[in-house]
Each structure stands twice: as structure tokens, then as C-alpha cells.
Design brief:
The protein is of the alpha/beta class. 32% of the residues lie in helices and 18% in strands. It has a four-stranded mixed β-sheet, with no helix packed on it.
């Protein structure tokens, strides 16, 4: 939205949330290294330059050029991909739709950009949706932080024996990709510092286990850097396991890739890749690629409205890939695999947010503030 000519176009945004979540920061917010608002940008940041509706898009009629939308401002139980209300109460849809601002509506369009994201892939594994935590949104990060603290408080009860304490303090992560590994690293930092200080008798019982069926973790990275990450995890006491039997745990975080958004799956008119069966880049996990594609789409739209020559075909410009591995260390692999670096957490943060247009100046400043605050005084472990 920042790059598109908002004087030439009447821009309308339909989003189920009133914010945009910067997902690379969610692992840090889940353990209190950063506060949740550091990873959020308001959808209405452009004021009256952009019309915004908090709603789901349930269907698209390409012939009539209309969207069928359903407000997402009421109870969450009727919205796809959302969790049930925390109090367990389910509102009667007929009653709910009688409230002002909850009725379905249609929107017309001239140009349509579909950027609805994807869902967490569960592979239909029994129990995952009911008992696992995901890390796709700030709501997920908040639930994870609350559950970590809850596990320690439950383990601190006088009626719990040592074996039960070890089970409660067993944190399991399924998925050895960047998200799972970064969360494991952030969680280790929390356990080794703040939780050790506040729960000195319990923290030594805590352990982290990463499960993955792939031959190695961080498959997109160079082998040498993967070995470095594995060695770091061994030193930190983080165990990486391929498969095992029945395992008790206090918290399970599921991070095994992405599943298509139901809206995208319903659009039979869209072309898909014959090899991967993917629609456009809807499965892509690379935020840098999505950012570059967004800029390119804005160029196309601006060129068309101003009758300028069409830009050259899109070409991805890789700046390398990087992930955090704990102990204030990150590892980076350049655009060419021979460029391998081990960098500090501060450098990692600067590389992560420096070139990004997803975060405003306020949030970029708050990141540095909270990193310094928590590095100096420790994380806030208040549970509410």
C-alpha cells in the first residue's frame, strides 16, 4: 500500500484483522524478548487514503468483479481457521447476524490483489488442532507465552512430583524449519536466563526437543551452517529427534510448513504450477520475496494507470537467508552459498528489519528499545 499511487487509485483493504503482523518477530514476542505491539502495524495507518473493512472474503466472482465479505468483528467461532471463544460459549449465528455491523456485504473492484496468506499445515495429524500451538499470528504468540508461564506455575505446585514436573516442563517443537528453530533458540534463551532466575529449582528440569522427519534441520541452508546450528543446540541442551514413541509434554508448538488458504483453494479460475500444484506464491515462506513481489505489483498498477511502459518481468533478488540460533548469535548464508557468517543478535535484528518497509519508524525504534531493556533488566514474565 505504501508504493501504490493512492491519488490515482481508490484503494480498499479487506482484512480479518486490524493489523499486519510481521511474522519474523513472532518468536521473540512469544518469549517476551519483544512486546507484541513491536510486531504489529495498523491496517489503517494511511487514514482516509485507504478504505479498510475488518472482514473475511468468503468468495470472489471474477465475472461480476465482486467480493462476498463477512465482518470478522463479532464472535470468532464462525470464522474459518480461527479458534473457539476462550470462554467456550458459542453465539447463535442468527442472533449474531442481527447485531449492527455483522451482516454480509459485497464489494466491487476494478483491480484485485489477493494476499490472504496461508494456514499452518497439520497433515491431518490427530490432536494437532486441539492440543498444539501454532506461530502464525500475534494471538498465537500470546497463547504460547501464557502457556510457558502456566507450565512453570503448574510445576511449582506442592502436589506435583518430580516426574510430573519434568513432563510439564518438556517443550516440544515439531518442524525443523526456520520458524521452529528460531523459536527453539528464543525459548532456550528464556529458560537459561529469566526462568532460571525466577524458578531456580524448576528451570534445570526444563528441556526442549525438536522433532523433524527431514534428513536435516534448516534444509534450505548450507550443510556447514546446519552443522554449526546443530552443534549450538547440543551445547544448549536442545535435542533434535527424527521420530520416537509416545512422549509427554507441557507445550507443543507445531511448525511444519504452510497449507493453502481455503479462499485460494476455492478459486478454480487461478492458474497453478503444474509441478507443485501451487497457486502463485501463496505457499512461499520467504517474506523478502513477498515484499519484492508487492513492490512489483505496485509498479505494474502505477505504470498502467499512468500509461507508462510495463516494467520488466519480475526477478527475485536474493539477499541471502538468516536465522537465529540462540545465545545472541544468528547465522547468515549469503546469496551465494560460499558467503557464510555467524553474526550477533543485534546484527541479525538490524538485517531483519533494516530494509523492511513492513514496519514503521515507531516500531523500528521500539525494537531497539525493548532489546536493550530486556538485555539489561530481563524479560517481563507476568502472566495475564
Amino acid at each position: 500500500m505504501r508504493k501504490i499511487d493512492r491519488k490515482a487509485y481508490d484503494v480498499t483493504v479487506v482484512s480479518q484483522n486490524t493489523y499486519f503482523a510481521f511474522t519474523p518477530l513472532l518468536a521473540s514476542t512469544a518469549v517476551g524478548t519483544l512486546e507484541f505491539r513491536c510486531a504489529l502495524e495498523p491496517v489503517r495507518r494511511y487514514g482516509d487514503q485507504v478504505a479498510s473493512y475488518q472482514a473475511w472474503c468468503n468468495a470472489i466472482d471474477f465475472e461480476a468483479k465482486t467480493l462476498e465479505c463477512l465482518p470478522s468483528t463479532a464472535g470468532t467461532n464462525r470464522f474459518p481457521g480461527s479458534s473457539a471463544p476462550e470462554d467456550g460459549k458459542v453465539i447463535d449465528p442468527k442472533v449474531e447476524l442481527s447485531f449492527p455491523g455483522t451482516k454480509p456485504f459485497k464489494l466491487g473492484y476494478d483491480k484485485l490483489v489477493i494476499a490472504c496468506g496461508a494456514y499452518s499445515q497439520t497433515f491431518n495429524t490427530p490432536g494437532v488442532k486441539e492440543y498444539a500451538h501454532f506461530l502464525k499470528d500475534v494471538k498465537d504468540a500470546r497463547k504460547i507465552r501464557s502457556r510457558i508461564l502456566e507450565c512453570f506455575e503448574q510445576a511449582a505446585q506442592p502436589t506435583v512430583n518430580d516426574q510430573e514436573r519434568k513432563n510439564l516442563l518438556h517443550f516440544v517443537i515439531v518442524g525443523g524449519g526456520p520458524t521452529g528453530i528460531e523459536f527453539a533458540a528464543e525459548l532456550h534463551d528464556l529458560l537459561a536466563t529469566d526462568m532460571l532466575r525466577h524458578y531456580p529449582n524448576l528451570a534445570p528440569m526444563a528441556r526442549i526437543t525438536v522433532y523433524d522427519v527431514a534428513p536435516k534441520i534448516l534444509a534450505a541452508f548450507d550443510g556447514e551452517l546446519v552443522e554449526y546450528a546443530v552443534e549450538q543446540f547440543k551445547r544448549q541442551g536442545v535435542i533434535e529427534v527424527k521420530e520416537e514413541g509416545t512422549i509427554p509434554f507441557g507445550m507443543l508448538v507445531w511448525s511444519t510448513g504452510l497449507a493453502p488458504n481455503p479462499l485460494v483453494e476455492s478459486l478454480k479460475e487461478l492458474k497453478h504450477d503444474p509441478k507443485t500444484q501451487r497457486y502463485g506464491s501463496s505457499f512461499n515462506q520467504n517474506g523478502i520475496l513477498a515484499n519484492q513481489q508487492a513492490k512489483y505489483v505496485a509498479k505494474l498498477l502505477n505504470a498502467e494507470i499512468k500509461q507508462r511502459p510495463t516494467p520488466d518481468p519480475f526477478e527475485f533478488k536474493s539477499a541471502g537467508i538468516m536465522t537465529y540460533v540462540g545465545n545472541w548469535l544468528a547465522r547468515k548464508m549469503g546469496a551465494q552459498s560460499q558467503k557464510k557468517l555467524v553474526v550477533s543478535h543485534g546484527f541479525y535484528g538490524a538485517q531483519l528489519i533494516g530494509p523492511s518497509l513492513s514496519l514503521g519508524v515507531r516500531n523500528k525504534a521500539s525494537l531497539g528499545f525493548y532489546w536493550f531493556l530486556n538485555w539489561t533488566f530481563g524479560r517481563d514474565i507476568t502472566r495475564f
